[in-house]
Amino acid sequence: MHGFANPKRFLSLARWLTPLLLVAGLIIAFGALAYGLLVAPTDRLMGETVRILYLHVPAAWLGMGGWTTIAIASLAELVWRHPLATIAARAAAVPGAVFTAICLITGSIWGRPTWGTWWVWDGRLTSMLVLLFLYFGYIALSGAVSREGGSSRIPAIFGLVGAINIPIINRSVVWWNSLHQPPSITMGKSAIDPAFLWPLLIAALGFSLLFGGVVLARMRALLADIQAEARLRRKALAEGL
Q1: Domains of the chain, with CATH numbers?
Q2: Does residue 2 register a pLDDT over 60?
Q3: Name one GO biological process term (predicted).
């Protein structure tokens, strides 16, 4: 982990890895979505609405994965003071929030014909909405700390505390009586027919690569801003002398 603590070493890796992840992610994700919309069979119970599965489920996974990234980076910041940990957490926040919002929007679209309502206050939907608000709070807090020059440990603590919501989201359909269907994919087994499962997994892979590319691109942009600010500060000090 500390092998890439040097920003120059990280940037040399991210410079070629970022476009690779973005291009591969776009090709795989849109290919899987095209298959799901145009080729995949309809479901016996849900009919054509099952096609939103290929966007909704990867968005849900990456919404949770984004906050997991924030929590891991926050732990690295608090324990090891990793130089890039805070930047990685900030970079993952916006794409994580976007995927969480996509999950909630597509879930509502899916729920209207399936449940007869756009929204229900059950455990899964409510905890996902809480996750979106946590993202908003983290983005605002980390932005304020960056502008005002506060301690990076404050958003890191918030990132770790917010991670409590991730297992709640995961287990909500088991702990509480819910309209949301129970877990279809668990460790070592799946209740999803292979005709739906494989395109779903490929879509998840594509969106995960896309997520990784966006995070790396945002980390590069944040580092560039920090370096530019440092140069301006040195120039101002030199002129003052």
Answers
A1: 17-181+196-239 (1.20.120)
A2: no
A3: cytochrome complex assembly
